[in-house]
């Protein structure tokens, strides 16, 4: 099932940080259309949750040294087309 997920990310301080997060998220199988914003510190993406879980995405962000939390009220399900 395809979902649009948004994560709040703390610890990004520059464009290099957003580029690193974007690069790592874009390489995750099942993740597409990634947008990372320094301000307000978010990453929004489409994710096929049958292939990758929000916890796996969060772990990938934490692996870069940032704090991440899924923002459930800004996430939504939609059918794959």
Summed up:
The protein is of the alpha+beta class. It has 2 helices and 5 strands.
Write the layout of secondary structure elements.
Layout (H helix, E strand, L loop, with lengths): L1 E9 L4 H12 L4 E7 L4 E7 L5 H10 L3 E4 L5 E3 L3
Antiparallel strand pairs: 1-3, 1-4, 1-5, 2-3
**Total separate domains:** 1
Q: How many helices in DSSP terms?
A: 2
Summed over residues and divided by their number, the pLDDT gives a mean of: 91
CATH topology title: Alpha-Beta Plaits
Q: What fraction, in percent, of the residue positions are helical?
A: 25-40%
Overall outline: globular
Contiguous uncertain segments of 5+ residues = none
For the structure shown, list the relevant keywords:
alpha+beta; five-stranded antiparallel sheet; 2 helices; 5 strands; 27% helix
Protein model, in words:
The protein has 81 residues and is of the alpha+beta class. It is 27% helix and 37% strand. The protein is built from two helices and five strands; from the N terminus they run βαββαββ. The protein has helices at residues 15-26, 54-63; strands at residues 2-10, 31-37, 42-48, 67-70, 76-78. Strands 1, 2, 3, 4 and 5 form a five-stranded antiparallel sheet that branches. Strand 2 (31-37) and strand 3 (42-48) form a beta hairpin. It starts with a strand and ends with a strand.
